[in-house]
Design brief:
The protein is an alpha/beta fold. The protein has one domain: Hypothetical Protein Aq_1857, Chain: A (Sandwich). 16% of the residues lie in helices and 37% in strands. It has two helices and ten strands; from the N terminus they run ββαββββαββββ. The strands form two sheets. A seven-stranded mixed β-sheet has the order 1-5-6-3-4-10-9. Strands 2-7-8 form a three-stranded mixed β-sheet. Strand 9 and strand 10 form a beta hairpin. The radius of gyration is 16 Å and the shape is globular. The N and C termini lie far apart (54 Å). 24% of the residues are buried. GO terms for molecular function: 2 iron, 2 sulfur cluster binding; 4 iron, 4 sulfur cluster binding; iron ion binding.
Length: 126
Amino acid sequence: MSAIAPSPAPNYKIGSEKLIKVLPNASNKLLSLLTKQGRAEHGALRVAVVGGGCSGLQYKMDLVDGPANRDIMVTSNEVRVVIDPKSALFVTGSELDYSDDLQQGGFKVTNPNAVVTCSCGESFAA
């Protein structure tokens, strides 16, 4: 019987709020969601930039157990955010906010790198 070796800890970098800043409303919502999922201690929000949307690029956000290899992890307003190096090129200087407005609610990224945004606010071009 062979023992299964524990997987090595991921190799990631620590970033600063210069990469992405989580505003208080987003922090409160994310901490609530992470707590509901039992991930309050080590969980994180993964922010990625993927192709799609009417302007060419869009954000993809998921709650994850922590950083993966090569990720950059930023702690902002008590929330850990992990971003892959390629996405980091597009989100540098961004702010993440949250609104529970019925029409325009949800998480919103304010990105100084976006040269074009679509009217729905869900995609951008850099």
